[in-house]
Specification:
The structure is a single chain. With 89 residues, this protein is mainly α. The chain has a domain at 35-89. The protein has helices at residues 3-9, 15-30, 36-55, 59-88. Helix 2 runs antiparallel to helix 3 (36-55) and helix 3 crosses helix 4. The radius of gyration is 14 Å and the shape is flat. The model has no long low-confidence stretch (mean pLDDT 84).
């Protein structure tokens, strides 16, 4: 599986949702009263709601919402870990 395959999993309209979820996760991380463990759940719920709003209700929208939220969280972690690795060298 390469990057093009991953990008085909998510509907092209939803890359804005990925960006919005990334920003929401960043803001939640900086919010003192929001526990870290809850951020992934909040981001996923927001992603599903935005996806359903954009694509309409249905099983595919629900799955796309979960994928979109997961892609945002994974992307954030990927960048953070890459930065940590770069700092060690």
């Amino acid at each position: 599986m390469n990057w093009n395959d991953i990008f085909e999993l998510i509907h092209p309209v939803l890359f804005g949702v990925v960006a919005a979820c990334w920003v929401i996760g960043f803001v939640l991380k900086k919010t003192p009263k929001v526990p870290d463990w809850s951020i992934i759940y909040i981001v996923t719920v927001v992603a599903v709601l935005l996806t359903v709003w954009l694509l309409g209700w249905g099983p595919e929208s629900f799955i796309q919402g979960i994928l979109t939220g997961a892609f945002a969280v994974y992307g954030n972690q990927f960048v953070k870990q890459a930065m940590k690795g770069a700092d060690r060298e």
